[in-house]
Specification:
Layout (H helix, E strand, L loop, with lengths): L13 E6 L5 H16 L3 E4 L5 H11 L4 E5 L13 E4 L6 H8 L2 E5 L3 H12 L4 E4 L8 E3 L3 H9 L1
Parallel strand pairs: 1-2, 1-5, 2-3, 3-4, 5-6, 6-7
Helix pairs in contact: 1-2, 1-5, 3-4
């Protein structure tokens, strides 16, 4: 319990990295660099916890000593990739995309398909910054980025 006049501790920023579970080598390299840069800001990396872009981003964050959270579609935390520190099993399939969007302060989309598009839509609907790095950018509100560094800077605001 806080005492009168005492300030609440500052909460770490939660940056979501979203993208395809099967991605090109270029997309995986970008996601890994995004993960590294997110960790360097002191933010927590949140992702879907599985393979592809999610695993590459988590690997990059872990390489920099960052904290990673995986919000999984299945019923078991054991499904998470090996770079996830905190695995949250939802047993909700793609509906877990709404949880990812609600949890994060901002989202960075790297590559991606229709699942990524749904996370982008949830993020935009929640009026959260959504940054696209070689991903969907077909509706107003999506912030385009030219590089991993640019994407993280824009996600940080």
């Amino acid at each position: 319990m806080m005492q009168a006049g005492q300030k609440a501790p500052k909460r770490a920023r939660l940056i979501g990295v979203i993208g395809a579970s099967a991605a090109s080598q270029e997309a995986l390299a970008m996601a890994e660099e995004v993960g590294r840069l997110v960790a360097r800001t002191g933010s927590v990396l949140v992702c879907g916890g599985l393979g592809g872009v999610m695993e590459a981003a988590a690997r990059g964050a872990k390489d920099e000593g960052g904290i990673t959270v995986g919000i999984l579609p299945g019923a078991a935390g054991i499904e998470a990739n090996s770079y996830i520190d905190i695995a949250i099993a939802t047993n909700m399939g793609h509906a877990r995309n709404a949880i990812i969007a609600h949890t994060c302060d901002s989202l960075i989309a790297v590559s991606g398909e229709y699942g990524t598009l749904s996370e982008i839509a949830f993020g935009l609907g929640l009026r959260k910054p959504v940054v696209s790095l070689n991903s969907w950018d077909l509706v107003p509100g999506i912030i385009r980025a030219d590089s991993p560094k640019d994407a993280v800077e824009k996600a940080m605001g």
